Amino acid sequence: MKLNIALFAALGLALAAPVFAQKTGEAPGGKYAGEAEQIFRTSFRADNPSYWMKRLEQDETMKTCQQYRDNPPRPIGQRLEKLNAATIRYPVDGKLVGDWKEGEKLAAVGSGGHIGFIQPDPAGRLRGGNCYACHQLAKKEVAYGTIGPSLRHFGKIRGNSDDIVKYAYDKIYNSNAFTACTNMPRFGLHSWLAPEQITHIVAFLVDPESPVNKD
Ligand code: HEC
């Protein structure tokens, strides 16, 4: 992930900035917004599963965050957070803490969700949360990103009260319920992770036996 970010940054500097600065003097998204949108859309095959094609349409949260460059005035941000909070669904049995060992696997898996002209995912491929792309969690994984705060010792520091458990579940289900224009994906809202899978990741965060809380 660090490499990817470095690569994006390098590409951004090498390509995007000079093009916009020298040719147009406009901010990215100005004159070329239509062209960029078209390239983006045509990079998805129409025979992709419909849930992918639906994702090409921005919902109100995305549109508003784009409009305000992820920094909307507070009342607008609060409205978006409310909208997102209203989407959160819970497992039928109401149990929000699952099995940390399952959660450990799900948090680490970063494959799945191929798009564009690449072959679709093989049937049965496990989709994970790719949490390490942005967070430090268990000590043994050293290749973690730092876009999000470290979650190391999450349960050790905050405990595993009902409030903390619900917060962790809600945050993973729909992160924008807390930070209107966050970078963290909305795993539950987009059916990327099922409610039961989210409970396993919650256990990975809060269970005292989980490697997140050891050492
Ligand atoms: C693309 C980056 C990204 C990914 C992937 C990601 N997160 Fe986050 N996460 C963030 C950011 C950024 C924050 C900081 C708060 C915010 O902006 O919402 C955050 C905040 C959090 C918080 C709240 C931390 C606190 O101190 O209260 C939790 C819990 C969390 N993430 C869990 C997870 C889990 C579990 C996964 C994997 C299922 C995950 N995140 C995947 C970016 C990410």
Automatic annotation (TrEMBL):
<dbReference type="InterPro" id="IPR009056">
    <property type="entry name" value="Cyt_c-like_dom"/>
</dbReference>
<protein>
    <submittedName>
        <fullName>Sulfur oxidation c-type cytochrome SoxX</fullName>
    </submittedName>
</protein>
<keyword id="KW-0732">Signal</keyword>
<feature type="domain" description="Cytochrome c">
    <location>
        <begin position="98"/>
        <end position="209"/>
    </location>
</feature>
<dbReference type="Pfam" id="PF00034">
    <property type="entry name" value="Cytochrom_C"/>
</dbReference>
<dbReference type="InterPro" id="IPR016823">
    <property type="entry name" value="Thiosulf_SoxX_II"/>
</dbReference>
<dbReference type="InterPro" id="IPR030999">
    <property type="entry name" value="Thiosulf_SoxX"/>
</dbReference>
<feature type="signal peptide">
    <location>
        <begin position="1"/>
        <end position="21"/>
    </location>
</feature>
<keyword id="KW-0408">Iron</keyword>
<keyword id="KW-0349">Heme</keyword>
<keyword id="KW-0479">Metal-binding</keyword>
<dbReference type="InterPro" id="IPR036909">
    <property type="entry name" value="Cyt_c-like_dom_sf"/>
</dbReference>
